[in-house]
Amino acid sequence: MAIPVIDFSKLNGEEKAKTMAAIANGCEEWGFFQLVNHGISEELLERVKKVCSDCFKLEREEEFKRSTPVKLLNDLLERNNEEKLENVDWEDVFTVMDDNQWPCKTPGFKETMGEYRCELKKLAEKVMEVMDENLSLQKGYIKKAFNGGEGNSAFFGTKVSHYPSCPHPELVNGLRAHTDAGGVILLFQDDNVGGLQILKDQQWIDVQPVPNAIVINTGDQIEVLSNGRYKSVWHRILVYPEGNRRSVASFYNPSLRATIAPAPQLVEQAKKDDPQVNDQAYPKIVFGDYMSVYAEQKFLPKEPRFQAAVKAI
Ligand SMILES: [Fe+2]
């Protein structure tokens, strides 16, 4: 079983219907799919790999060696304790956004990542339009819902992570299992070092590295908006004794002030298809309230988060 790999360029041609169907299947059955020929140039992607790896070496690696997960693992080994560390991730991570501080010592980081983010945001919007069409929603519906009215723009962030080699991968996760809180996530993962797995039919399966592909997955807000047609799927990252996994994840999330609710036409449709169906399976949520709950409950089941976010209002 392998995550679907879809040629995005075929959307513009005679294979459009087949490609739309493949994306619908990726969203409905997998929650994850990989895009190739997505329009982001190989030259830019190569630069992204270089500046992110350079940045880790130059500005992050030493700090990681002194970080909490490394200390906790060393403590564990000193005490001869073989109990797995459940509350930390073997991860070095920082986020770049439009208005925060970026690493500044790595040559080319700012220019390259600025250019990359611009391209990825456009790709995210194209993917959302495909979802609109596949869900029979008006073109631009998801983007509009995420932008939440004037002055409340959607949030586009990019998380640059590394998962350095770990001498005892059986004792710690790279990133503990979770579902993503937001909208659409576009991941540029390492060509060689795997580790990302998704939970499908109760089984963890690998998201196989495909060079220069962009992995797309849907977050909790797409699940709400699609009234459960598209599920946000559990995933995790394992670490290995060899290799330093690089992972660049961009996320197109609603504005914190946007109210996210199931699209009414999808609720109607679900009721028509099955009159017994619970037509209030997903509540209306202000995304900022959801994020407050998520900050505390990221690694717990998502369903109670929806209810807790409603109570938080
Ligand atoms: Fe995630």
Blueprint of the fold:
Blueprint: E1 5-7, H1 16-30, E2 32-36, H2 42-65, H3 68-78, E3 92-96, H4 109-134, H5 141-147, E4 155-163, E5 175-178, E6 184-189, E7 196-200, E8 203-206, E9 214-218, H6 220-225, E10 235-237, E11 245-253, E12 259-260, H7 264-273, E13 285-286, H8 287-297, H9 303-311
Parallel strand pairs: 1-2
Antiparallel strand pairs: 2-9, 3-4, 4-11, 5-10, 6-9, 6-11, 7-8, 7-10, 12-13
Bound molecules: fe (ii) ion (FE2).
Fe (ii) ion (FE2) binds next to loops.
Keywords:
L-ascorbic acid binding, alpha+beta, 38% helix, metal-binding, four-stranded antiparallel sheet, 313 residues, 13 strands, seven-stranded mixed sheet, IPNS-like_sf, ethylene biosynthesis, metal ion binding, 9 helices, globular, binds fe (ii) ion, Jelly Rolls
**What small-molecule ligands were found?**
fe (ii) ion
Task: Please give the domain count.
Answer: 1
Which strand order do you get reading across the main beta sheet?
Answer: 1-2-9-6-11-4-3
Q: So, CATH architecture?
A: Sandwich
Number of strands: 13
Q: Radius of gyration, rounded? A: 20 Å
Separate helix tally:
9
Mean pLDDT: 94
Tell the overall outline.
Answer: globular
The stretches of 5 or more residues where confidence is low (pLDDT under 50) are none
The named CATH superfamily: B-lactam Antibiotic, Isopenicillin N Synthase, Chain
Name of the CATH class? Mainly Beta
Gap between N and C termini, in Å? 42 Å
Structural class: alpha+beta
The proportion of strand residues reads 15-25%
Reading the helices and strands in chain order gives EHEHHEHHEEEEEEHEEEHEHH
**Share of residues in helices:** 25-40%
- CATH topology group: Jelly Rolls
Largest sheet: 7 strands, mixed
